[in-house]
Amino acid sequence: MAKLNQLTIHALRDLLDSGQVSPTEVLDACLKRIEQVDPQVKAFITLIPEAARARAKQLEDLGKDKLATHSLAGIPFALKDNLCTKGILTTCASRMLANFIPPYDSAMVEKLEAACAITIGKANLDEFSMGSSTETSSFFPTANPWDLERVPGGSSGGSAAAVAADEVIFALGSDAGGSLRIPAAFCGLVGMKPTYGRVSRYGLISYAPSLDQIGPLTKDVTDCALVLNTIAGHDARDANSVPVEVPDYTSFLKEDLQGLRIGVPREYFFPGLDPRVKELVQKALLRLEELGAICEEVSLPHTEYALPVYHLISTAEASSTLARYDGVNYGYRAAADDLDTMLQKTRTEAFGPEVKRRIILGTYALSSGCYDAYYLKAQKVRTLIKQDFDQAFAQYDLLVSPTAPGVAFSFGEKEDPLSMYLLDFCTNPLNLAGLPGISIPCGFIQKMPVGLQFIGRPFSEGTLLQAAYAYEQSTEWHRQKPDLDNDCI
Amino acid sequence: MIISHEQVETMAFLNQIELSAEEKEQYTAQLNVILKYARILEQLDTSQVAPMIHVLPLYNVWREDEVGVGLDREQALQNAPESEEGYFKVPRIL
Asked: How many domains, chain A?
């Protein structure tokens, strides 16, 4: 029989609501698993077992009937360590914030606490979310539970590894260019980047504000809908969040896709794509047709421009958002006798190499003489990329593509920045256009998971979940688990 | 070469970042590869295209001009590397 920590939210709900298991039993199963495998997986920067135990006890005292009215009651989860937690270390995996204890909670913490979920810890990431492998973390890399010699993807790699290794039931991450979907693909999970503005980013430590969005990493599509139900919605404290009604996302979980029109963008099957991934995606398309969908090829002609556009815009924004780290209000401060030296030593010592590279590139793209050719040009091409999607969505309900061009790679394999950036080829364009996307498992290549990406119109998360659910229910991929026990003795 | 060693150094300086000779060399090489790749954007005629301002039709998000609850002074200072008498303290400026 499966252990409690291996179960989904919806399976645990039945057991918790009927009183067959208690929140403490679920939590203990997760904590035991963490003790067993996290020394190898290294998903967490900070763990708060005592606080979690106290919370579980508190929830038990409420009684199971009262608990059952809360959607995520008694479910242990992890937060990417760029989401502020009051009184709990929040580092962004940077030396800059290695001692930062936020005086307030992010909107996500408020919502999940209100839903009576239990925070277990803060998960590793690429420093300030800048990366696709979690290797740029200033503290340590996280391993992929499917193969400890490989990366979990990034930047939400700790969140994904924690869920895939059954250390927590679900996790939250953030996604500016693929940071939820790439780890979901590499770790065999469901990862959703909601529409820009769907989820409040109050208390998210920003990387690129016009692209960042928070979303769930879960073991299946039903869990994704349950978490999205809890975290979606308008928040006046994030001026970019949108007052659009939040439907009950579980109402979209149907096994029928009759008449759904799906476009398959040919440009996403680019030369860098592993032919074995292509084959699995094509098989998935056949399955979607069997389920009643109509799949047709479509063109998004500006796709190949998305990657440079993304890097010019995201780095330009990062050069601005990271200007706040000055050793004055919070975070690292280097010892120095005068202010200028302090500033320079602080930023030189506390930012890692990828952060410096991106800040320098972004500043260059914004500098006088380069602004028109790089930043402004990128924003114009961004308009063209969005128009491509608008045209495609005039004909199709959603689009399907691979998530990542291959499976998870070994540590240190992608040393030059450009080859790392190419990982986000199929995921970047959605952020540029503000669209929702979901990655779900669609097969394996030599025991490593492969992801399938659905792309939708703004605020069509329900349609994405419908298609993802119908596909998932017709396959067994999501039931497979990494065989970690032999690796972690 | 699109971006020179000197330009890389200037951009780093503007960000209060000091680069070692080795870093300068490495970043210059890497940024040239990235910027060369970015040059594919020049293939597109964008003379008639408006730059993206926002992906959603959101304009002028206002709220009522009312005093809200903020952090108190103690909380605001709790992460300060150095503070004195309720103020953030920095090394001498002059």
From this structure: 1
Kindly state whether residue A349 falls inside one of the protein's structural domains.
no
Instruction: Compute the distance between CA of residue B91 and CA of residue A349 in angstroms, rounded to an integer.
Output: 17
Distances (CA, A) of B88 to A28, A56, A241: 43, 39, 32
The 3-state DSSP class for residue A160 equals helix
Q: Which domain holds residue A442?
A: 4-263+394-487
Question: Which residues on A lie below 8 Å from B35 (Cβ)?
Answer: 361, 364, 374
Whether B33 sits inside 8 A of A417 (CB atoms) is yes
Residues of chain B with Cβ-Cβ distance to A242 below 8 Å are: 56, 58
Question: CB-based contact (8 Å) between B86 and chain A?
Answer: no
Residue A477: inside a domain, yes or no?
yes
The distance from CA A139 to its chain's CA centroid, rounded to whole angstroms, is: 20
pLDDT at site A343? 97
Q: Does A416 sit within 8 Å of B58, measured CB to CB?
A: no
Per-residue pLDDT tens digits for A338-395: 999 999 999 999 999 999 999 999 999 999 999 999 999 999 999 999 999 999 999 9
Q: What is the DSSP letter of A143?
A: P
> A236 contacts in B (CB within 8 Å)?
63
The 10 Å Cβ neighbour count of residue A202 is 20
ipTM for the whole predicted complex goes beyond 0.90: yes
Q: In angstroms, what separates the C-alpha of B20 from chain A's closest C-alpha?
A: 10
Q: Where are the domains of chain B?
A: 5-41
Question: Is residue A378 one of the residues assigned to a domain?
Answer: no
Residue A288 reports pLDDT greater than 70: yes
In a domain, A341, yes or no: no
Which chain B residue has its CA at the smallest distance from A333's CA? Answer: B81
CATH of the domain at A115: 3.90.1300.10
CA-based nearest residue to A181, from A153, A201, A205, A207: A153
With an 8 Å Cβ cutoff, are B46 and A377 in contact? yes
The Cα A86–Cα A102 span in angstroms is 5
Joined tokens for residue A176 = 């500016």
Indicate the pTM of the whole model: 0.97
Domain B5-41: top CATH class = mainly alpha
Beta carbons of A337 and B79 less than 8 Å apart = no
Assess whether A155 carries a catalytic annotation: yes
